[in-house]
Amino acid sequence: MELNTLTAGLSASPQVMPDDLQAIKDAGFRAIICNRPDGEGGDQPTFQEVAKAAKKLGIEAVYQPIVAGKVSDADATAFGASLQDLPGPVLAYCRTGTRSATLWSLSQAGNLSVADILAATKNAGYDMGGVVRRIANGGKTPTDTGDASYAVVIVGAGAGGIAVAASLKARKPDLDIAIIDPADVHYYQPGWTMVGGGIFDAQTTARTMGSLIPRGVHWIKAAVAAFEPDNNAVILDGCRVVKYDRLVVTPGIKLDWNKIDGLVETLGQNGVTSNYRYDLAPYTWDLVSSMASGRAIFTQPPMPIKCAGAPQKAMYLSGDAWFRRGVLKDIDIQFNNAGGVLFGVKDYVPALMEYVKKYDANLNFFHNLVAVDGPAKKAWFDVAKPDTPVERIAIDFDMMHVCPPQTAPDFIRVSPLADAAGWVDVDQYSLRHKTYDNIWSLGDVMNAPNAKTAAAARMQAPVVADNMVADMRGGAPVAQYNGYGSCPLTVERGKIVLAEFGYGGTLLPSFPKFLVDGTKATRAAWFLKEKMLPPIYWKGMLKGREWLAKPEKISVK
């Protein structure tokens, strides 16, 4: 029979027959809850028939019938109480299991996050979209009907969110826009590589969120719990509801530090650091500037990740610092990459390999970090070479720079907006959602096959703004995104390999080759990274001034 696991202590299933009880006992269940009223179907056994069979096998049985579509708050409370009282694990059933899953979702709303509940039910095969507001409201039926409503709602006030808000305001100054984000501080994350290399001060990469929200845009300082795209609604934590005519989804990416055993406990100490966090990037430089000998490991997890070049940027700048201090010969540099190539666009690899050789770095491909013991200075990697059994190895270290595994945010992965892998499902050219034509997405959270970089979001924001305005006027998309992404690879202090490319690895240089040859390390590219890109970000991209970001128009033949 079909047993759908919700938690270790509870599963849900379709109708249970008396003959199923032996298999249920053999599966380890000690109690059952019937959530289907007797007489609902012609071939349905009564609860007493099921309970009699259960009693013979020592399984407790509880009858809590629920009429389809009518789960009350009291029903959810009673179901939660039964779970507390019954010996586990428990199997709950109705006609399909949906009512049982709904009762569990509402009963746990005060204990688990909306995303955790939606993830558990989704994995078990049940869609809780119809009760998401109740889940967000602690399992209780909402009574507030005073929903806010805007022409455009933007989820996320990172690089993509503020840029698209500014671009929309530049096109339609009177447009009623709200941007939803709980954060107080906005970070220029591309600068953290430079912080870890001792070039930027961390404070220069942070500004207050309130100072950056475009004039005339409403800032809703809250976290999103869920989406109801069929109702044009965003559900906030606490069950406040924000309605929209058009929606932009750009909340960024989740850094899954907890996926590596022992990492969270040792970050920022014991020689374990990461430029992927504002508070840790200065520690990277502290370690590099004080290290004179030993082993330094730089890790890169499976793709996708944001700024795929950042793990090796940290390696190059560290190697350069050790080279300049004359201690490089005493430092063993290991670059442990879960992937199989140094960089995904082959045109840039020769220039990078020159620096790999200069710093005598060992490239260990198919090495994925899975655990770390900070006090013991030991890390474990799963080595998964093609056509070879996975082998777990331990490596000692004196310093380790970690790039964490990354996924779409939890509330995105469990939403109707996500594809099978959990990313917002868009057309890669128009950046419009494939199912909901009044929703667009940009930045790290969507599934277009481009590099996840701030430079990509800089190009995407005007495309989304142009296409949304065209839609408001009743027209088809007018601009298309070519997959542009940029990765300024800081190979040494004063030189950068400026990788610029689009879909399929096509090179998309922004400057003539005589000014910046992206396939070579140049000082001009370093000047761009150090002096030009920060003001382009703060004063251009976030202000709706689309410098170096003119949208590519769709050609009509």
UniProtKB/TrEMBL annotation:
Query: How far does the signal peptide extend, from start to end residue?
Result: none
MF terms from GO for this chain are:
FAD binding; hydrolase activity; quinone binding; sulfide:quinone oxidoreductase activity
Name the domain of life. Bacteria
Query: Which residue numbers delimit the Beta-lactamase hydrolase-like protein phosphatase-like domain?
Result: 3-110
* Span of domain FAD/NAD(P)-binding: 151-263
**Which InterPro entries does this one have?**
BLH_phosphatase-like, FAD/NAD-bd_sf, FAD/NAD-binding_dom, Prot-tyrosine_phosphatase-like, Sulphide_quinone_reductase
Asked if the keyword Nucleotidyltransferase belongs to this entry, the reply reads no
Note the SUPFAM superfamilies from the entry: (Phosphotyrosine protein) phosphatases II (SSF52799), FAD/NAD(P)-binding domain (SSF51905)
Name the needed cofactors: FAD
UniProt keywords, alphabetically: FAD, Flavoprotein, Oxidoreductase, Quinone, Transit peptide
* Pfam name, any one: Pyr_redox_2
For the keyword Transcription regulation, the answer is: no
User: One of this protein's GO BP terms?
Assistant: sulfide oxidation, using sulfide:quinone oxidoreductase
For this protein, the record's NCBIfam families field holds: TIGR01244 family sulfur transferase (TIGR01244)
Q: What is this protein called?
A: Sulfide:quinone oxidoreductase
Q: What species was this sequence derived from?
A: Yoonia tamlensis
